[in-house]
Automatic annotation (TrEMBL):
Boundaries of every EamA domain copy: 22-154, 169-305
A Pfam family matched in the record: EamA
Protein name listed in UniProt: EamA/RhaT family transporter
Principal location: membrane
Keyword NAD found: no
Any one Gene Ontology cellular component term annotated for this protein: membrane
Membrane spanning residue stretches: 21-41, 53-71, 83-101, 113-131, 138-156, 162-186, 198-218, 230-251, 263-282, 288-305
Membrane topology label: Multi-pass membrane protein
Lineage: superkingdom: Bacteria
Subcellular location: Membrane
Keyword field: Membrane, Transmembrane, Transmembrane helix
Family: Belongs to the EamA transporter family.
Length: 309
């Protein structure tokens, strides 16, 4: 066998491993797109903090049999990285989902789904601001173009809203959730890959439930009550298993294997899956400003990704 052939053969397992790692990042956007659809569909039946709390209770119960042993083993490592783990729990588990459910009470699911496309750009921006990663000219142009796309969606294509500061409240809340997810993705890379991801997910949920419990009780005390029926219980079962356990585990593993930046690009599949689901199950319709906004966001991302890291 020639040297070139030997090199090619040696490279194949790595190529397959890289492809497998990237494929791990395909199901999470699909499940998270379903999260938006269910959150919007349940807005009249289940209040946002109640939905978030019980979602993670179900997830914790499902995950605990598999997570308990690695959680016990990695407990010293959790303590070593305690503030980082608390930060990712607060950003990615508590804040992101609660803000999404709150925002979806007053904005269509399609708007929330399209705003997800700004997450990779937020990751690049925050990496430059907080981690001293150099922001190149093409990345800056991509940021500006994508931000224009986000504004197009938030303003519903009406520039006069900007002059009057007439933003849709729900869109702004969902955009805050996108900021939380970008921080979650960046902060995840500070947790070593040798820490078991199933156990880490269990630890994140446990911390999140400690934070969510008083918020859930406050919401109940304020008079917001859930209306439990077969539809709402089934929705919670979906949220507790697929977007909460399966998607988070695959995303955590994907970030550990391919890095935060490459994993962040998979977020662009959420609008693709989600808008189709919204049209099918929520009878929502696409508008021209949706298409213009998503085109600007994708163009900005493509421009930013041309820069070498």
């Amino acid at each position: 066998m020639s040297d070139d052939a030997a090199i090619a053969v040696k490279g194949r397992p790595d190529d397959r491993a890289s492809l497998t790692s990237l494929l791990l990042l395909v199901p999470p956007p699909l499940f998270w797109a379903g999260n938006f659809i269910v959150g919007r569909a349940m807005r009249q039946d289940v209040p946002p903090l109640t939905l978030s709390f019980w979602r993670w209770v179900i997830a914790f119960v499902c995950l605990l049999p598999f997570a308990l042993r690695p959680m016990r083993r990695d407990l010293p490592r959790y303590w070593q990285y305690r503030w980082r783990i608390v930060s990712v729990s607060l950003a990615g588990v508590v804040s992101f989902n609660s803000l999404v459910y709150l925002g979806l009470r007053s904005t269509p699911a399609s708007n929330g789904l399209l705003l997800n496309s700004f997450i990779p750009i937020l990751i690049v921006l925050f990496a430059a601001l907080f981690y001293q990663q150099r922001l190149q000219r093409t990345q800056a142009l991509g940021l500006a173009l994508s931000f224009a796309g986000v504004l197009t969606i938030i303003l519903h294509g009406d520039g006069s809203r900007l002059a009057a500061l007439a933003f849709a409240r729900g869109d702004l809340i969902v955009f805050c959730a996108m900021i939380a997810w970008a921080l979650y993705t960046l902060w995840l890379r500070g947790i070593p890959a040798d820490i078991n991801r199933i156990g880490l997910m269990g630890a994140q949920i446990a911390i999140a439930l400690v934070i969510l419990t008083p918020l859930y009780l406050w919401e109940r005390a304020s008079g917001l009550q859930a209306h439990w029926n077969l539809q709402s219980v089934s929705a919670l079962a979906y949220l507790g298993l697929f977007p909460s356990v399966v998607a988070y585990l695959l995303y955590n593993i994907g970030v550990a294997r391919v890095g935060a930046a490459r994993a962040g690009y998979s977020i662009h599949l959420i609008p693709l899956f989600g808008v189709l689901l919204a049209v099918l199950f929520l009878d929502e319709s696409l508008h021209l400003y949706h298409l213009a906004g998503i085109a600007a966001i994708i163009a900005g991302l493509a421009l930013a990704s041309r820069s070498r890291h």
